[in-house]
Write a structure and sequence with these properties.
The chain is an alpha+beta fold. 21% of the residues lie in helices and 25% in strands. The longest helix is centred in the N-terminal third of the chain and has 9 residues, at 15-23. The termini are close together.
Length: 108
């Protein structure tokens, strides 16, 4: 499994609009080959960033998503919030799952 984490620092006064954007998302990613799941985590402390996690069968599946027309359509709504809604740039992190103690099948 391959996990992509995007940390997005949203100003507290824009939290509701940010969350609504994800509720109304295009869902393009859900239909991509190799896509497993998408989580959007709300921070308990409003000073912390939101975390968007996408889980993929492989890094190649994720890369194919980022190069697809579906990716462009899915991110077309990104401009719906003003630039000042964010406390800074988002940070994209990439991980390979090597252990999953909560699942019946363990990662290699």
């Amino acid at each position: 499994m391959f996990v992509v984490m995007n940390r997005i620092p949203v100003k507290p006064e824009f939290r509701e609009a940010f969350e609504q954007r994800f509720r109304a998302r295009a869902r393009e990613v859900d239909r991509m080959p190799g896509f497993v799941r998408n989580w959007v985590l709300r921070p308990a402390d409003p000073e912390d960033p939101y975390v968007v996690l996408t889980v993929w069968e492989s890094e190649e599946a994720f890369e194919a998503w980022t190069q697809s027309e579906a990716f462009r359509r899915g991110h077309a709504q990104s401009g719906t919030l003003p630039r000042d809604a964010f406390r800074g740039p988002s940070k994209l992190e990439r991980y390979e799952l090597f252990l999953d103690s909560g699942a019946e099948s363990k990662a290699p």
